[in-house]
Amino acid sequence: MLGLEEDTVRAAVAGVRRDSGTVASDDVGDIFARASWAGIAEPGDGTAGALISALGARRALAVMLEGVAADRIANEVLDRASIELRVDTIRSGLDRWRPRLVAGDALAALHRAAQRGVSLVLPGDLHWPSGLDDLGDHKPNVLWMLGDRSALTSLSASFAIVGARAATKYGEYVATEAAAGLSDRGFAIASGGAYGIDGMAHRATIASGGVTVAFLAGGVDRFYPSGHHSLLTEITKRGAVVSELPCGASPTRWRFLQRNRLIAAATQATIVVEAGRRSGSLNTAGHAATLGRPLGAVPGPITSVASDGCHRLLREFAAVCVTNADEMAELVTGEAPPTLFDLPGGDGAGVRVLDSLSKRSGRSIHDIAKRSGLAPAEVQGALGLLELEGLVVEAAGAWRRR
Amino acid sequence: MLGLEEDTVRAAVAGVRRDSGTVASDDVGDIFARASWAGIAEPGDGTAGALISALGARRALAVMLEGVAADRIANEVLDRASIELRVDTIRSGLDRWRPRLVAGDALAALHRAAQRGVSLVLPGDLHWPSGLDDLGDHKPNVLWMLGDRSALTSLSASFAIVGARAATKYGEYVATEAAAGLSDRGFAIASGGAYGIDGMAHRATIASGGVTVAFLAGGVDRFYPSGHHSLLTEITKRGAVVSELPCGASPTRWRFLQRNRLIAAATQATIVVEAGRRSGSLNTAGHAATLGRPLGAVPGPITSVASDGCHRLLREFAAVCVTNADEMAELVTGEAPPTLFDLPGGDGAGVRVLDSLSKRSGRSIHDIAKRSGLAPAEVQGALGLLELEGLVVEAAGAWRRR
Fold this sequence. Notes:
homodimer; 9-stranded mixed beta sheet; Arc Repressor Mutant, subunit A; Rossmann fold; 11% strand; alpha/beta; two-stranded antiparallel ribbon
């Protein structure tokens, strides 16, 4: 395996699979290959994903190590797996990956993970967030996790609550109410661990005794942002901090954008609380929409630039306008799907008859008919209903409002 | 005509058709019959509308006056006009209208109108707001108007701006910006003359030198609310105050609801600025939606009950989220229809290459390829584009960020 002793690899893998529970694959070679791919291909590399899905992580790595040419991979290796990839796509992939093929990198990441108590979660594991599989070839090959594995299982009923780093007091209030309200209703809350909305969502979930998961754009051994070190530490105790990047990896803009796809895919619906016009949380929203996940946006004052992004989502992205935890929950429970509502105005005859009555003087049906412009029979019917509702009263053939 | 001398009727009609310009119908009998119907049938009475549309206002009135039985009207009179109305629908209509058939009422209303300078506008008149015709049998038979007839013509490019009486400072600010912005763009602004949002919309339009029209729920000789007497007087100078109710008629809840259909129908699109959960402006919104008119709602803080109705419109009524006059104008110009927008993130390779560059030290393409996880050829392509954008600079094969 990459020229390493099998015992070395086995020991390294054992260090990150200590509490793996039901293990999808105890194939040490596969696990090590997945950990290696995490350092070789950038998040969301669909060519790597297709290759791994066709050949398995180990074989895909071996093919690359053995220097098999792109056209042979396309025409022979993949052909047998009924996967089609263009030769130049594969060649470009090999050109991307080969410079990063350093034997010691994965080993170092695994050692570092073992030291920090980080464990690996693999596709097919009991705790693997099944929503990630909807990413297809763009799904992560492995998750690196600090905290409670069962928090990942809780993602099967969960919301992403995301938003601007530069949140206002209004946004922070809304994020707090949303996270508390949804976790009270039994949902886990996932977010990105950032300042502003993300942080408030995690904090409010913890304060409500709920489960929260933070997805990071770099290795989980390097908490980012550093100002959230104690919050992220708290999250590992009350949930999990997760990344597809190996330990030691630093966050980059690209990785933030790709991290957002994990947040959108791992959860059932995404709520954007506050977002500037070019906020990264719109990227998360875009992933949610692409995946067909329900997308909610919280409105705010049009005078606040921190709500511009939410308004764009409502206007241009068909996001659902959500103003409280009940409406957010409905995004996934479907208990009260958006419908046309009853317009104020109600029963015309009732309104018109009430309009024609006095509280002081009683009026005859004929008088009411003339005043309301209704036929006497319509007046009589309306009066009967209004009487049942306790809104009108009759004495000696004269009706008045109560 | 209703037992009145023809000269009396002719004189009364002349008093309200002085400045009628191109007149759709100079048939005095028809005009008087329409004015009569305005006092006999309540606004929006579809049976009266169907009868008038089939027989003409004069004949419809005569049929009622002559005591023609409902089944004969259904089977003989209407049959020839190819209109179908059920016998019991007609009978119920006759029962509604007959108690109100008082010869002097229409005459009194016309005299009152003539004294106050109110004139009549008829369907087919040059100034008749053609949007009202979309109401079909529920359209008004006549409009009573104070002010400038040409203001009604301006409704062919117009917005309804409506909202809560109990507006907040935020709502008043938004209404002002919306009305000023839309009238600057050449649109007339219609509203209901009420306190709160309506009043601000009229005021801001006047202040911008625009044209504004107020639709009232009672006669235009009785300004309602009385606290808006000077505003409504001002509107008659800079636009028009209009009603389908005859002079002397008082506003009722039913008439407010029906008045709302005129606002929605006469304009090209309706904007709800602020509305409580059961606000009457939701009724206007409902009419707009029913008529297929574009409907915009302005979001606000979810902590403000004055925005609850707008959020319901966004959530349950597929209203378009509008946050400025440009977005409102787009509702009718269709210049920038809602579309999926470009997600922040952009070109993956560009972002990843920029992520991998330093401002201080230059890096080789090979180094950048390894850092970004891109193939050298992809790096080269991205660098070329970034160089064109002036974002990167090269010296002796080493690239750095500017």
